[in-house]
């Protein structure tokens, strides 16, 4: 069901397959302008998921952008919150707000946060960012439809790297247990995550066999073929008694030559800014939407720029000012040299690595937290490094097992994940057992 008027039940706007292909092209272009204006964001995954986003928001789901909380709307959960810019351009194209607004990506108070915030933007179903959580929420939402006899459908966009998280498999089991045929997971199978190819970080294959064994209806498609995407979504709707997973083979960075299949383009905007080899201009050339003239792009970038200037003014006005300088806020001796904590971590683990008992466990952000310093100049140490995938809870437990046998394991991820997602493992297993996990 395409975009609807929730009051009259009439279709507001429908698209042909050819039009959807063009819309996805336009969405990629807006996406790249947004990322460039922000100077940061996730190029790779937003581009790989874009055709699916266009198919869902412009053709498949029943929704009314003028009535975002319509009770009977279909729900789409973006479990991979880092792909938020693709969600924003999809919502904009569908009519939740003018799509050009999405260029205010990552700007304070704009609502277009780096990861989606449900309370700040209409059409966003779930605040997300910590991977592995959306599918469970989607299960709850689908269960509610069954309980209340509602016929809305529930879609969840998952990343393939995200499937490393155990909580995903708990949700998979739960959905099959409750025979949630109103639920569809779409896996953006682009084959890459942050540390490299999925099969090197944590082997996923055979993915189809795994989902089937968990008793899901399993469909494999080319995630850039609009016809196949729509056919799979229709097939899922006909399925009775089982949830459906659509494993969509995609290309990370699809449509932008310098980003396609390039691991480094996971979480960055075009390296060269507006023009140059790896720039916005080059990206737009590759994408090939002729409506994105220099003039139009300038105007879009100006929207972002003007907005930022207003934000800066407001911030400046709200900052407390000293009436004059004192020794403690201005003397040279009081100034400190700043260095990121992760750099200190990298230096320390490099040094400590000479102790053969030291082992390092990574959770798919190894270079980002400088854990790679452990083996960068000491290749022999690589065998004492273990990639755990995006699975912080299991990482703490595996480290515990190694510690129990006399190793000194260092585990690492971003602070929120390595304390939050494995808090109980730290409490019960690491602490109560007094295991020497760092
Ligand atoms: C719990 C958690 N751990 C780590 C991260 C950091 N992180 C953000 S994206 C990402 C890789 C995700 O890979 P995938 O799901 O395949 O997404 P894609 O490659 O399609 O962007 C990681 C590890 C996170 N957001 N959440």
Automatic annotation (TrEMBL):
Its cofactor is thiamine diphosphate. The keyword Signal does not apply. Keywords: Thiamine pyrophosphate. InterPro entries: THDP-binding, Transketolase-like_Pyr-bd, Transketolase_N. SUPFAM superfamilies: Thiamin diphosphate-binding fold (THDP-binding). It comes from the Bacteria. Pfam families: Transket_pyr, Transketolase_N. Residues 340-437 form the Transketolase-like pyrimidine-binding domain. Residues 25-271 form the Transketolase N-terminal domain. Belongs to the transketolase family. PANTHER family: TRANSKETOLASE N-TERMINAL SECTION-RELATED. This is Transketolase. It comes from Aerophobetes bacterium.
